[in-house]
TrEMBL record:
Originating species: Chryseobacterium ginsengisoli
Highest taxon above the source species: Bacteria
Similarity comment: Belongs to the membrane fusion protein (MFP) (TC 8.A.1) family.
Region forming the signal peptide: none
Regions of compositional bias (Gly residues) in chain numbering: 408-426
Annotated protein name in UniProt: Efflux RND transporter periplasmic adaptor subunit
InterPro entries from the UniProt entry: Beta-barrel_YknX, MdtA-like_BSH, MdtA-like_C, MdtA-like_HH, RND_pump_MFP
NCBIfam families: RND_mfp
Compartment annotation: Cell envelope
All copies of domain Multidrug resistance protein MdtA-like alpha-helical hairpin, residue ranges: 101-169
Length: 426
């Protein structure tokens, strides 16, 4: 009997140990360790900006054409050639215009000869008219003939000047100092200027100065002003940022698929000649910039201590800046104010004794990433932006299944980012 009783006792003790182990390792709620993420206010630049896309182009581009028709005889420049003002670019075959000039010059000599004859005839008729040898009608005819001859000389002289000018236009000269961007003709090609002036060359005046033709959405154009700072990148140099400034906001809108955009010109330095005409630019225009101001991350104003934080840290009075207030139950508290305006916010700071306290601050510019702090904080304050949970995985324990639900406010590397958590103080 004693042996049987001892066996039952062993079984009972063994069962209790097994149940205790099961509870300890599998059933009991494991303690969650958390670590607060903090930052200190910093001094620096804060800005609001808008984004747009555009095309890089030279500041001044001249299309060189021809006013006369003909066959391209010679071309003296090519793509990317550097030219000076007055430099010969190309010539047209001048033979046809030369022949026309010579023909008109012959007509002019004939008109001058006719004028000389009519001058002699008019002088003779004048002398005869004075002595009554000819009638007034004969005198008037001679006078009309000399006037017509003079007009004919003037007319042919004008035609000759036009022919000589057209002949000189067979030489195409550069109107500016610059670089040839495009050549549209080749030697032997016929160009006709009957209806419009054909473009032979496109010349960029100065490639060390470029401009970006940006399309800014109508929702953003109200904040864009001349002189504002702009930065942009191009696909050719994705890791390099180029600087510029807004030089013009054009009033004529462009509409595409019911989207209204306004053309905004941005001047940029291109001394390095890295920027090429036609490149696509991704542009940031800084509509408001403040320098040397105190700023904090925007996430700091969204943090709210939840039940995990309240359990691990001592929460001071939830009322602002040292004003005492009553705590409720498990540490829940009242809101700082139900009438906070847009220039006020609250952050939580942690002290050396691990006590977290709420502070009311006055804010300025907010770009959704950083917030300007006008007053309410010191540069040594440790501001809480969130927290992360320290699971057993981080200390060498078993890994959690990714399919298991996580506790609110917890999880590996997951911080509190503005949630109300377990109803902690606001």
């Amino acid at each position: 009997m004693k042996t049987k009783n001892k066996k039952w006792l062993y079984w009972i003790v063994g069962g209790i140990i097994v149940l205790g182990a099961v509870w300890y390792f599998f059933i009991r709620e494991k303690e969650v360790k958390i670590q607060l993420e903090t930052v200190q206010p910093e001094m620096g630049e804060i800005s609001n900006s808008i984004t747009a896309t555009g095309t890089v182009q030279p500041v001044d581009t001249v299309a060189v054409g021809t006013q006369v028709s003909g066959i391209i005889k010679n071309i003296y420049v090519d793509f990317n050639s550097t030219v000076k003002k007055g430099e010969l670019l190309a010539t047209l075959d001048p033979d046809l215009l030369q022949y026309q000039t010579e023909q008109i010059n012959a007509n002019l000599q004939n008109a001058k000869s006719n004028l000389s004859y009519n001058e002699i005839n008019f002088n003779r008729q004048t002398q005869l008219y004075k002595v009554g040898a000819v009638s007034k009608a004969d005198y008037d005819v001679a006078q009309n003939q000399i006037n017509a001859a003079r007009a004919q000389v003037n007319s042919v002289s004008a035609q000759l000047s036009t022919a000589k000018k057209n002949l000189s236009l067979t030489n195409i000269y550069s109107p500016i100092d610059g670089t040839i961007l495009n050549r549209n003709v080749s030697e032997g090609q016929t160009v006709a200027s009957s209806f419009s002036t054909p473009t032979l060359f496109s010349i960029a005046k100065d490639l060390t100065k470029m401009q970006i033709r940006a399309s800014v959405d109508e929702a953003d154009i109200g904040n864009v002003k001349i002189g504002q700072k702009a930065t942009f990148t191009v696909d050719a140099f994705p890791d390099e940022t180029f600087n510029g400034s807004v030089s013009e906001v054009r009033l004529q809108p462009t509409v595409s698929s019911n989207v209204v955009n306004y053309t905004t010109m941005i001047n940029a330095d291109n001394s390095s000649l890295k920027l090429k005409p036609g490149m696509t630019a991704n542009i940031t225009i800084y509509t408001e910039v403040l320098n040397n101001v105190m700023k904090i991350p925007a996430a700091a104003t969204s943090f709210r201590p939840d039940s995990l934080v309240i359990k691990k840290y001592k929460v001071a009075s939830p009322f602002a800046n040292g004003k005492k207030g009553k705590r409720k139950g498990n540490g829940q508290g009242k809101n700082l104010s139900t009438n906070e305006n847009k220039n006020e916010a609250a952050v939580w700071i942690i002290g050396k004794d691990s006590t977290i306290t709420r502070k009311k601050i006055k804010t300025g510019m907010d770009n959704d990433t950083e917030i300007q702090v006008i007053s309410g904080l010191n540069k040594n304050d440790n501001i809480i932006t969130g927290y992360k949970s320290l699971s057993k995985k981080s200390s060498g324990g078993a890994a959690k299944s990714p399919f298991m639900p996580q506790r609110r406010g917890g999880g590996n590397g997951g911080g509190n980012r503005g949630g109300t958590g377990g109803g902690g103080p606001r």
